[in-house]
Amino acid sequence: MVTTNLFHYKKNSWPPEEYISKATLQLLDSDSAAPPKQAWRRRLNSHANILKEFSVTFKEAVKMVRLGIRLWSYVREEASHGRKAPIDPFTRESCKPSASQGVPLGGMGSGSISRGFRGEFRQWQIIPGTRDASPVMANQFSIFISRDGGNKKYASVLAPGQHEGLGKAGDQGISSWGWNLSGQHSTYHALFPRAWTIYDGEPDPDLKISCRQISPFIPHNYRDSSLPTAVFVYTLVNTGKERAKVSLLFTWANSIGGVSHLSGDHVNEPFLGEDGVAGVLLHHKAAKGNPPVTFAIAACETQNVSVTVLPSFGLSEASCTTAKDIWCKMVQDGQFDQENFNCGPSMPSLPGETLCAAVSASTWVEPHGKCTVAFALAWSSPKIKFSKGSSYHRRYTKFYGTSERAAQKLVHDALTRYKWWEEEIEKWQNPILEDERLPEWYKFTLFNELYFLVAGGTVWIDSPLMTGDVRDSHHQTKEIETMDVNVIEAPVSHTKECPSKDESAVFQEKGGLSHLKPSPLQEPWNDNDEVGRFLYLEGVEYIMWCTYDVHFYASFALLDLFPKIELNIQRDFAKAVLSEDGRKVKFLAEGNVGIRKVRGAVPHDLGMHDPWNEMNAYNIHDTSKWKDLNSKFVLQVYRDFAATRDMSFGVDVWPAVRIAMEYMEQFDRDDDALIENDGFPDQTYDTWTVHGVSAYCGCLWLAALQAAAAMALQLGDNYFAELCKSKFVKAKSAFEAKLWNDSYFNYDSGSSSNSKSIQADQLAGQWYTASAGLPPLFDEVKIRSSLQKIFDFNVMKVRGGRMGAVNGMHPNGKVDETCMQSREIWSGVTYAVAATMILAGMEDQAFTTAEGIFLAGWSEEGYGYWFQTPEAWTTDGHFRSLIYMRPLAIWGMQWALSLPKAILEAPKINIMDKLLLSPSTRFALHETGVRKIATKAKCFGASVFHCAC
């Protein structure tokens, strides 16, 4: 727990007064129009520098050449089937990555659109697993101002004119608009899920403008947090002596990013709805058989605000109404014709033609007066379809139905509910923002890292059942039956399973082979699954859903804010542990062939092209031989069980926990109760080879033994608890004897050049042990000594602690350059190390460590990784894998700072209690207790348990 007043100093504080005049702040200080005291800030005229991408060294390239050849072949093969490979380092985006990001729009799981800090709408992820980073430049807010007497007129796009992709002046497109804003006196302020853009006298010196962007991301609200909508609230303050007529214009292209606007058959349609909400629906016919999307742009008419629309205009001279025409119309009249509401749907657009729409809201602002104008954006794509055929309905359809026209209802509700959303957001955020013990940079970075739960390719479906339009299961079964399937049994039982009438049976014995049945992940856990099912990507460049070794770091955010989602993800993986997929897969690193999913092994991910049904999209290594996944599963399950005290969850997942633990026994080859690594990168650091016992996987295993014992005791499986306790005592002794060097734990017990390296992540198991309220794995001296060594070497010897913690450091103070990952700084791991330090009472070192990620990634002097925090960067600032899941681990720091009452009061386990069993006892010799627990689990068929027939 953070100590009183330790961080009372204002380190890296960004007071708004340094960006906005105090007079303007006072004028906006009502109705949430002024930005908060704690926010990430940037001037609009700041340059969006091109980011420096990662490259391997010559030595690394030589080591990886065979993998590169196999990966290139695999990428080409997938492309021949019209699919993307989950990892494709060979295809670069047409839009170079730049330091241009801002707070994304909308809730979770219904597709996302990001909005850069200068106002551009970019990072389009409407279709699951696809992304286009390029901004659609026709999507803009613009302002038109005239004052009594006609002496002063202003017309400008509310974004700086130095955007890429504007084209040449003089045409009929958006280059003809007034790109007059310098951005010198305009600033952006971000505190996810809201953002403020303040125009302090631009373009009119006598008009102060605040644009407040609000999305419905509300912790523990499983309804509104799923909605694909955002609100833009403009507050206008007239400081002049004459009243001003102000017209705001919202333009939108019928596009889902890239060149999708050119595909044709798109239709726009005006609407006039309830409560003064009026706008345009843009019906987008998606290409390549993807489900259609309908956008709605709207404004709210009030007593003081008049709303008009232009349902369609184009960007070329061939258009009936061009972008230049609408600009001239707005400059002259400040509004469109009321008759436009009656014109009905437009003609479908032709291929190569861009179809756009506009909504205008006009008002008069009296001298020294104030007015508010609210716009909303929504998109409705109710059905999602994965590339191998499975389709589902998105979560929000539970409340809005399955029509694309739900977009109209969505913008209506956004415009009438946003004030309540803001109240709920402030109730959630204020206790942290007002905590004077915490550094300013930490407060806003903590909230802003949550951008990934919207922009990380999230998918949230209505229920665990597929819609009627499911994949062709007959075709798939036929395809599977033609394969040579060799089932690898997990070492958990040698008894034959009972026949079962339950359709969730994993296997059916036939002729010595096992024929795959439909995955149990298709089926509901219970009748009370009211929050649906959730997926999020490892990263937008590594397209795999719910990558589990990375979820280990990120999951604190979901557990803290949306615990029901977190429990359902764990349930999905629990089912996966008990299933097997015998289809053959070629593993690219070694070139060997194995099966896709081994029973007893925790999958690396829930899939890519058919998530939940075809797991393990990752195929670099055979992850059934990884040494961290099963331990991470047990640790996460226990932490979630302890934090929620959800006994039904514990009963549901316990059989999978037991089998996951039993599966790992095969990797203890010298009977010391401690697992060994196998001389290849068999854990989340998948280019960093490990030999023998490793600090990382061994520590996770010790923690898993302790967690499994604690959970077994609480569920009444006392015999298994004793087994785990016995193994823990023996394994801990072996671990310390093989790795402890009186200062820290060596990287591994091998004899390679990096075996004595200082690994930043060596105490990952201790992190979870302390986070779950369990006793420490080691004595306090060893824990603090290791963390201090990491701080002194991995943190402070890299640019004076201003970059985060490098993964590997030799004891001589030189960065471990064994492979690309050993020399990288991983943002998420740095946050995890900081959380471990907090739990060990080393708060000062913790915040200095984590501050390096802020300085390198989020500060003005940093590399420009805001709202796209990468997995990794090197000491010279070259990034790898932008918009990545693991940095959500900053919520592990917040968890450590304020451990839940349930954790603090969780039942304690004394691992050193009198042991009833010999420490040499092996898991597979006893099964007492699992049947008793299994009978309580309502979600599985009897055949997934081993029973005597």
UniProtKB/TrEMBL annotation:
GO BP, sorted A to Z: carbohydrate metabolic process; glucosylceramide catabolic process
Mention any Pfam family matching this sequence.
Glyco_hydr_116N
Coiled-coil-forming residues are: none
User: Residue limits of the Glycosyl-hydrolase family 116 N-terminal domain?
Assistant: 102-421
- EC no. given is 3.2.1.45
Q: What SUPFAM superfamilies would the database entry show? A: Six-hairpin glycosidases
Q: Name one GO cellular component term.
A: membrane
Q: Which reaction does it catalyse?
A: a beta-D-glucosyl-(1<->1')-N-acylsphing-4-enine + H2O = an N-acylsphing-4-enine + D-glucose
Residue ranges of the region described as Disordered: 85-105
Keywords per UniProt: Glycosidase, Hydrolase, Lipid metabolism, Membrane
Q: Which residues form the Glycosyl-hydrolase family 116 catalytic region domain?
A: 532-893
The yes or no answer to whether the keyword Plastid is present is: no
The GO terms this record gives for MF are:
beta-glucosidase activity; glucosylceramidase activity
Q: What class of enzyme is it?
A: hydrolase
InterPro entries with a match to the protein in the record: 6-hairpin_glycosidase_sf (IPR008928), 6hp_glycosidase-like_sf (IPR012341), B_Glucosidase_GBA2-typ (IPR014551), GH116_catalytic (IPR006775), GH116_N (IPR024462), Non-lysos_glucosylceramidase (IPR052566)
Q: PANTHER family given for it?
A: BILE ACID BETA-GLUCOSIDASE-RELATED (PTHR12654), NON-LYSOSOMAL GLUCOSYLCERAMIDASE (PTHR12654:SF0)
Q: Briefly, what is this protein's role?
A: Non-lysosomal glucosylceramidase that catalyzes the hydrolysis of glucosylceramide (GlcCer) to free glucose and ceramide.
> Of which family is this protein a member?
Belongs to the non-lysosomal glucosylceramidase family.
Name of this protein: Non-lysosomal glucosylceramidase
Q: Which organism is it from?
A: Manihot esculenta (Cassava)
